[in-house]
Design brief:
Four Helix Bundle (Hemerythrin (Met), subunit A), 15 helices, alpha/beta, elongated, 471 residues, RNA-binding, four-stranded parallel β-sheet
Length: 471
Amino acid sequence: MALKLFNTLSRSIEEFVPLDPDSKQVGMYCCGPTVYDSAHIGNFRTFVFADLVRRYLEFKGYRTRFVMNITDVEDKIIGRVREAKIPLREYTGKYEAAFFEDLKNLGCLPPHDTPHATEFIPEIIALVEKLITRGLAYKAADSSVYFSIDKYRGCGCVYGQLLKLNFDEMRTGERVKSDDYSKESVADFALWKARVPEDGDVFWPSPWGEGRPGWHIECSAMSMKLLGPSFDLHLGGEDLIFPHHEDEIAQSEGAGLQPSGQPFVKHWMHGAHLLVEGRKMSKSLGNYYVLHDLTSKGFTGREIRFLLLSAHYRETFNFTVKGLEGAQTSLARIDECLAKLRELAGNSQAPPDSTLVEAFSRALDEDLNVAGAWGVVFDWVRDTNRHLAENSLTPVQAAAALAAWNRVDSVLGVGAAPETEVPTELTALLDQRQAARKARDFKRADVIREELKAKGWVIEDTPKGARLKRL
RNA sequence: GGCGGGGUAGCCAAGUGGUAAGGCACGGCUCUGCAAAAGCUGCAUUCGUCGGUUCGAUUCCGACCCUCGCCUCCA
């Protein structure tokens, strides 16, 4: 079955074919975090989405090289560094470490490369020089270097590949900064920003004087260096379509490094934004969640991941605490089923049962219909539970079912529920309750049950005996 | 003003020109000393409104209403 993905370039669903169809090698790039603060749940929707793409490509037999950049120099960071009076790297390092911790918590596989903007200054300068040489960029009176949209379009290149742009109808104004007065045209964007006093220690030497990279250029420089001038997949949040990705295309194709006829990026994918509790996330509404806000409420990374993966990536998704509670119950349903399968399978081994895997894959082949894929999983859980209840499953069949789940979970990445060790004193209490029940001393049995509950453990009386579960 | 999404049960969310997946919540049942947990099971004559095309539309077309996003450094 062929994988089909929506491509922002064509605004339609296309079969995914890598630039080199025979190699099974896929280069993918996702615009990563700007490490000036903790990443929020909306950011993570995009990164979990990117992780899904990467995992599914690998499931389909592609070898991926996944690059996610870390933007560690930018206006907000410079502002914070100045306030905090600490070196740039010290400041960004803290948030970067937190970011990777969160990413891990959410079950995202680490990207193969996580390049930093500040470590690619020579490449960035070289790219800007190339653009100046080709006549597409100019040094302005303020010593910054800008990319000229007019010149670019004059060469027959298309500015506005990812969205329809109508320059006459565009509202210019509010967000055009006053220090951009030296641009030849409002549409032009900075490749290199000349040093200003507020930058403090944050600057690098360049042929145009001291300064720092513009926003878009880092992604062009890093992606082309690590994946080549033309690569397969570029992902990001939908807000990056314009101007960031459009400008990336302009710079990268403007530099003319691609083999003739090949685009900078073959396939662009964008994840939709998140609503939180039905509203756009904002600090003043109190619905601005960073991962820690959620984990401190007792939700786990896998539950958050599950919820983030419960809707199609191109749909706005309403992220709610109620939804997280539902995610908790849903995952528990899967966990229960898996636990029973494991018990039955014992040491048996078997190849994966293809029914689940194929139906799952059919769903994801359709532009990553992850909701449909979960539907397949839950149908499978119900069928499995039925068989389990009927005792109609052999250990080998159980092993095949587990193997199938592992295959599916290589994409979903929710893994298994973390094992909770039951403290021995609690097991002792449980034994006492069992003894009391046997003696038909139900009063005492219920007292022990309450006691355990007060300690945060619930007793599960199953036909195979009692066991303890964390509340 | 320009461009682009979306409106499917109490909530979240798939999907299809042929009569509505899945999850949560809720009800019933099984199990149990009673519970809980777990499992099974039930739960949209209907897909924003009004028209049109069609043997047949939630799915295609048109109009309208509502809602959300982007329009120069926000995932």
